[in-house]
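Entry 14. Ran structure prediction on the chain below.
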Amino acid sequence: MQIYNIQRSEDLKELTFHGDSNFPVAVYTTDIQQNILGYIPLHWHNELQFVVVLEGQVQFTIDSNTVLLGEGDGLFINANLLHTSTSYDCDNSKYICFDIDASLFLLNNPLLESFGAFILNPERLPYAVLNPSIQWQKNTIEHLKSMYALYTEKSYGFELLFISSLLKICHELITHISADPIVPTLSGNEHQRIKELLSYIHAHFSEKITLDDIASAANISRSECCRFFKKMTQTTPIEYLTSYRINQSIYLLKNSDLTITEIAIEVGFSSASYFIDKFKKHTHYTPKEFQRTFKTVERA
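Output, structure tokens:
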């Protein structure tokens, strides 16, 4: 399953439902270039996430930390952390993505809950890079590949073997990560500040807003707004605003009968020509090309 356009709430929570109540898991291959924006936009979700890179290099940003993964590398991202990814120094990158609800680690078992308390604590373990040159990390990556094969084939009872491999990964993490230094995480104030800035942009993107307006939403200066926003999102407030407007226009292009000019105005662009220029730079399509081409891709 390739997700072409991540749907997010105003606070950037991903709205995709992964799996079902009996087996709350989604496993899929992400081809970054196939995402309509050409990268995976900033988002978060309640599930834990594992990644194994299949091709190219991928740069992940998790909260304010950036990691670079090459082919064969893996990554664990804890629940509820803001993250984004993009191809790095290559035309395209692909990776397997595992979105797994925390309940699958615990299985309503007090013993597992005691171990899971370490893994499921994003302040203790926000993320972990998995390098195949290190034996226990190589073991974890091999377990993930096995889980991908099980999920893809879906033979009878595969869920049991999937959970068995997941528990082996749990064992690798609790027996090795605890001795390693923990990467810094954001403070509560920083989480609140970025949410204030993002919420303002999401609420007012269709209006004419300035950097001063965005900075005022968190009661900080223009320079601090730019510094902090860049640290958090790897982009400037205005660049993010443009990207968000493009993302909103995608929904209208797919689901409304508005003209290109009407859509441009609806999402906050000053003119249709400026909208077309920015849309093509972000997606490599003109809005009209997108309406024809991207809908065809979704039906395939």
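The first strand starts at residue 25 and ends at 31. Will compare against last week's run tomorrow.
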